[in-house]
Specification:
By secondary structure, this protein is mainly alpha-helical. The protein is built from 9 helices and 4 strands, in the order ααβαβααβαβααα. Helix 1 (about 1-15) runs antiparallel to helix 2 (about 25-35). The relative contact order is 0.16.
């Protein structure tokens, strides 16, 4: 399933006729992130699954993620993020202590869980990430197709 999603993402620019074929429509990127985060493929991302995703960023395994750990991991995964990694770190750092830990993850997860059922489904996840990415479009440049972001075009 995850391979199929990633394979389909590769076809998105040509299939949707975007003017800039080098950009990624935000909704497709968010969907791919959800598929990767939903580790048990049940259609919901639990807070535990989110923590599992973030554990990869903790290079020294001290249960805290510093800004430098986070930015270095983002750069290794996707160099297109550039300054967006710093903006995302700020979004995650709920208590502004410059370290990401379980309290920050719980707060961030709560922002995505808009219906409060303690599970984030694909719609909640994609809607949240579309808003977040579009709100920070000035940090990302031309990586995403901004015509999908109403506040950028309108």
């Amino acid at each position: 399933m995850k391979f199929l999603t990633l394979a389909l993402l590769a076809l998105v620019p040509c299939c949707y006729g975007q003017a800039n074929t080098d950009c990624m429509p935000v909704v497709f990127y968010a969907n791919a992130m959800f598929v990767d985060s939903d580790r048990d493929d049940n259609g919901h991302m639990t807070s535990g699954e989110m923590v599992t995703v973030f554990n990869a960023y903790d290079s020294n395994n001290d249960n805290n993620i510093t800004r430098s750990e986070y930015v270095a991991h983002q750069a290794a995964v996707d160099a297109n993020f550039g300054n967006f990694a710093d903006a995302l770190f700020n979004e995650y750092d709920a208590n502004d202590d410059h370290v990401l830990d379980h309290d920050d993850f719980a707060a961030f997860y709560g922002r995505m869980d808009t219906n409060g059922n303690r599970e984030v489904d694909n719609n909640e996840f994609v809607s949240f990430w579309e808003g977040l990415i579009c709100d920070h479009h000035h940090h990302v440049g031309d990586y995403w197709c901004w015509e999908w972001c109403p506040q950028v075009i309108g």
